From TrEMBL:
Organism superkingdom: Bacteria
Protein's recorded name: Phosphoribosylpyrophosphate synthetase
Organism: Flavobacterium cyanobacteriorum
Length: 104
């Protein structure tokens, strides 16, 4: 899948992804993305959309919204804050997310 980059507010990005059927809420847990439907390692999902938002007054006030599609077909959203705040235990997952975000 081709990565699409969109620049909007966080809430607008989530709203647009929900309209596309991204209904799961993913979270980081150690070396996995987890949601109600299961947990997925870095090889078990693809990033289909990235929405990056930087605060107008504070560059440290940033968020990235990812559209995630698991290998088993679950579509959902992951929201991360400033990359300095990302969980160091999530190594391979974070590497995959940052590579896509930094290539925007």
């Amino acid at each position: 899948m081709e990565i699409q980059y969109h620049y909007a507010t966080v809430s607008k990005a989530i709203e647009e992804l929900r309209q596309k059927g991204y209904n799961e809420d993913f979270n980081l847990d150690n070396n996995y993305l987890v949601c109600h439907s299961g947990r997925f390692g870095h090889e078990e999902f693809v990033i289909t959309d990235i929405y990056f938002y930087e605060g107008e007054t504070d560059p440290g006030d940033e968020a990235t919204v990812y559209g995630i599609l698991s290998a088993s077909g679950h579509k959902g959203v992951l929201v991360t804050g400033d990359e300095a705040d990302l969980d160091p235990m999530s190594g391979a997952i974070i590497d995959k997310l940052l590579v896509h975000r930094n290539n925007r």
